[in-house]
Amino acid sequence: MTTPSAHRDGQPPLLVVDHISKIFGAVTAIKDITFTINAGQVVALVGDNGAGKSTLVKIISGLFPPTSGRVLLNGAECHFTRPADALHAGIETVYQDLALIEQLDVADNVFLGRETTRFGWIGRLLGILDRDTMRAQTADALADLHIKIPAPTLAVSSMSGGQRQAVAIGRAITWGRKLLILDEPTAALGVEETEQVLQMIEKLRGTAMSQLVISHNMQHVHRISDKIVVLRQGWHVATLTTAETDPQEIVAYITGAKQQTPVAEG
Ligand SMILES: Nc1ncnc2c1ncn2[C@@H]1O[C@H](COP(=O)(O)OP(=O)(O)OP(=O)(O)O)[C@@H](O)[C@H]1O
Ligand SMILES: [Mg+2]
Fold it and tell me: What is the CATH number of the domain that holds 258?
């Protein structure tokens, strides 16, 4: 497979995952993964437990480097050495193992690392946080999501798994500019909250924000995505156009019952 560098209209894809591999000691977690995400597209990343999905997410979001291969954003190679670099580039990630700080409240978590400071540069220097502004903006962002969220002043340590996940999603939407990565965003959510997250993904679809979504629910994957990348034991085994497939066929690729040879470029 060659490097997909140009989109139909001459623009580079928003994101290119270019021959990425990751080895942890004796474990090769992902092997030679190549695909693209175009502006406004929702790409689903699917595969069984241990297939390498979260590993790929962590590479794109700057948590750790690939062993080989490159990630390109708007045609330029990314050299992220820490998650803050990806955030700065406009990539927001909701990790599967949620990264909220237990001791902080909801608003502090949403604004972590980007706190609004009062009194201009003096405030920034002294680190005086504008808590009222932060709390009001947080309440707005979370209300937009229609997800039942506790007060922004509530400590994360007293929240349920689903509430924490909702806060992490609210934070990602508040700050995301180019790419929103959601690693099993509905895994801890109830039926109603799950539906809200799916509707949010659908609402963002086709806007300036692209999305990479991981899910084990093939009905959801089929509903929300434009394209599906299937991993199996670290290998990229299929690239499917959502409109041309169905949940049963996606499962067949995940389990190995069906093969795509060669793997479609995309
Ligand atoms: N930090 C690490 N050190 C060593 N091995 C790791 C590390 N992270 C992941 N792995 C291994 O890499 C492989 C892929 O794991 P990964 O978490 O990416 O899978 P996944 O597709 O996200 O699975 P799940 O659906 O269960 O979340 C597994 O064999 C896992 O044990
Ligand atoms: Mg995972």
Answer: 3.40.50.300
Render pLDDT for 2-53 as a digit per residue (tens, 0 to 9): 555 555 567 889 999 999 999 999 999 999 999 999 999 999 999 999 999 9
Phi/psi for 109 (5° steps) reads -65, -40
Q: Residues 264, 160: one domain?
A: no
Can you give the residue range of the structural domain that contains 266?
1-90+176-266
* Pocket flag, ligand 1, residue 53 (CB < 6 Å): yes
Half-sphere exposure of 75 (CA within 13 A, CB side): 6
Q: What are the φ and ψ backbone dihedral angles of 158, each rounded to 5 degrees?
A: -100, 15
Scan for tokens 């039926």, then name that residue.
Answer: 191
Kindly report the protein residue whose alpha carbon is nearest to atom 30 of ligand 1. 50
The predicted model scores a pTM of 0.86
55 lines ligand 1 (CB under 6 A): yes
Is the domain of 185 the same as that of 114? no
131: exposed, middle or buried (Cβ count in 10 Å: 0-12, 13-18, 19+):
middle
Query: How many separate domains does the chain show?
Result: 2
**C-beta separation of 242 from 230 below 8 A:** no
